[in-house]
Amino acid sequence: MTAIKRALISVSDKTGIIELASALVKLNVEILSTGGTAKLFRDNNIPVIEVSDYTGFPEMLDGRVKTLHPKVHGGLLGRRDLPEHVAAMQAQGIPNIDLLVVNLYPFEATIAKANCTLEDAIENIDIGGPAMVRSAAKNWKDVAVLTDANQYETFLTELQTNNGAVSGDTKFKLSVAAFNRISNYDGAISDYLSSLNIDGSRNAFPDQTNGRFVKMQDLRYGENPHQQAAFYRDLYPAPGSLVTAEQLQGKELSYNNIADADAAWETVKSFSSIACVIVKHANPCGVALGKDALEAYSKAFKTDPTSAFGGIIAFNTVVDKATAEAVSKQFVEVLIAPEYTADALAIFTAKANVRVLKIALPQGSALGLKASAWQQGRNSHDTKRVGSGLLIQTADNHEISPSDLTIVSKKQPTPQQMADMLFAWNVAKYVKSNAIVFCGDGMTLGVGAGQMSRVDSTKIAAIKAQNAGLSLKNSVVASDAFFPFRDGIDVLADAGAACVIQPGGSMRDDEVIAAADAHGLVMVTTGIRHFRH
After folding, report:
1. Nearest in space to 425 (alpha carbons), one of 491, 489, 481, 490
2. Gap between the Cα atoms of 303 and 447, Å rounded
3. Are 259 and 296 in contact (CB under 8 A)?
4. In angstroms, rounded to a whole number, what is the distance separating the alpha carbons of residues 431 and 3?
5. Taking the model in full, what pTM does it have?
6. Could you tell me which residues come within 8 angstroms of residue 186 by beta carbon, excluding any fewer than 6 positions away?
7. What does the pLDDT average to over 410-436?
8. Tens of pLDDT, residues 384-409
9. For residue 278, what are the β-bridge partners?
10. DSSP three-state, residue 507
């Protein structure tokens, strides 16, 4: 390993840079720098050579041109193992640069500002920085490149341990991180400009989209053992989303665990009251509200004890000892909550395979506050792969209130029926289409999901309730889409339902409403559909 003798440092984010430069000086590293960074070093008595003095060419065009010079890029790109490179550099008086420390203009932070203009964005597109990073990263065998302040401490430790040198393995990893940073930076620029019109207005869907995800872990397999899989997160994950979970105990999460855990967590955090959600195969099979976690769990479990076996259980409140004791009596794959008491965690230690996840509730979630989808830990867009393509849509984050409902039946709902219909409607939003959800007293009574016929979903929901020993008399029903014919109303009325909440909008709405009136049902429409495919 060859010791680092010369470093070029040019950073927008000055975090940790004084400490890094001071340590390099102690290792007899010569430091080159530009503009503001060089001034900062001089102000802190750190020996530095300005790049303009080093190249003999002044910074110009308001700093747009300062490092785009053969003496800089030659020093970064020249291969030490090729005699012809060495000879050419000596002939042109180009010394080696062994370390590059660069972080880029804050383009992402700039466009995140509400008052950002196109001019602001353009001026924060870095040119010289990415060019140097590419040069150094390409020549990784000879040059180390740091692009993030989080890398400084580990890098310095190795440098000090190895008399001013770092391993080829470290240089390669830093090179990969550098190219990833450039990719993310260019992707952000492309996303922004592709969505922008010359007048400054933004399009909801850019002409080109550049997904950027970071691998969190490899998985044992995918949906089935013959499929390979890995788990990735957004480059900038929303607070309180599943990828921010802390696993407190249990086996490694599987592909299906993660998919089902996300369905459970998304559902439970949508409630502003204490709630429990049990999910099996991506569908809620039990959802309930309660005065505490134990009551919510007990009610949710009653909906479908058979399907709850081996399910995913999520709470939007603290899991205490009593709740833990109840949950631990069942076979549970994954348990999710924002917090656990010490007594509760002690109970689960006896169930070593149970995956216990802790996720902080995001701002605005379960608090009745108005917050953006990102603040609530929700995706702003949903995607779905198709053959050599991608479907992208804005996420279904629509929330409904009593004032949004239209009572279309002759019979009027009671306050309790109205509350139960809103609860049922919220649950139906997270059930695969065609979705039919029977509810009563703040709990699900029967869930019919994923059937090709809405009538079949209704029948299945009724059968589920019957199997669980639950009465559907005077229950409320939510349907994620309109009833195309009156037959669905006939089936749910025969099952005992008293109220129906549905989007409306069918060509046969009059026939469907007449059926509700004939059965003496309350019917309200939302004007919103919640297909979930």
Report:
1. 481
2. 8
3. no
4. 60
5. 0.87
6. 130, 210
7. 95
8. 989 989 899 988 888 888 999 999 99
9. 286, 313
10. coil
Predicted local distance difference test score (pLDDT) of residue 367: 42
Q: Is 180 exposed, middle or buried (0-12, 13-18, 19+ CB in 10 A)?
A: middle
Neighbours of 512 (CB within 10 A): 24
Domains of the chain: 6-194 (3.40.50.1380), 238-394 (3.40.140.20), 402-525 (3.40.140.20)
Six-digit token string for 127: 């040119």
- Omega of the bond prior to 434 within 30 degrees of 0, cis? yes
Place of tokens 């965690």: 345
Q: Provide the token pair at 197.
A: 């019109």
* pLDDT at residue 375, rounded to an integer: 63
What number is the average pLDDT over the span 310-323? 97
Helix axes 70-77, 128-138, angle to 10 degrees: 30
Q: Identify the burial level of 455 via C-beta atoms within 10 angstroms of its C-beta, where 0-12 means exposed, 13-18 middle and 19 or more buried.
A: buried
Helices 487-495 & 454-467 angle (0-180, nearest 10): 10
| Residues with active-site annotation | 138, 281
Using an 8 Å Cβ cutoff, are 25 and 47 in contact?
A: yes
Q: How many CA atoms lie within 13 A of 163 on its CB side?
A: 3
Token output for 163: 């008399």
> Tens digits of per-residue pLDDT, 405-417?
999 999 999 999 9
Distance CA 23, CA 338 (A): 42
Strand runs labelled E in 264-405: 275-280, 283-289, 311-315, 332-337, 355-358, 381-386, 389-394
Q: Which of 212, 214, 101 is nearest to 147 (CA)?
A: 101
Q: Where are the alpha helices (DSSP H) in 139-167?
A: 152-161
Q: What is the mean pLDDT of residues 444-465?
A: 93
pLDDT confidence tier of residue 65, bands split at 50, 70 and 90: confident
First to last CA, the chain: 56
Closest CA to 143 of 184, 88, 186, 102: 102
Q: What is the pLDDT of residues 171-197, one digit of tens each?
A: 999 999 999 999 999 999 999 999 988
- Please report the DSSP string for 362-392 in residue order: PTTTTTT----TTTTT--SEEEEEETTEEEE
SS3 assignment, position 461? helix
pLDDT in tens, 188-245: 999 999 998 877 788 888 888 888 899 999 999 999 999 999 999 998 898 899 999 9
- Tally of residues, the chain: 533
Other CB atoms closer than 10 Å to residue 259's CB: what's the count? 16
Q: What is the mean pLDDT of residues 297-305?
A: 96
Note the pLDDT of residue 368: 46
Query: Average pLDDT in the 110-124 region?
Result: 88
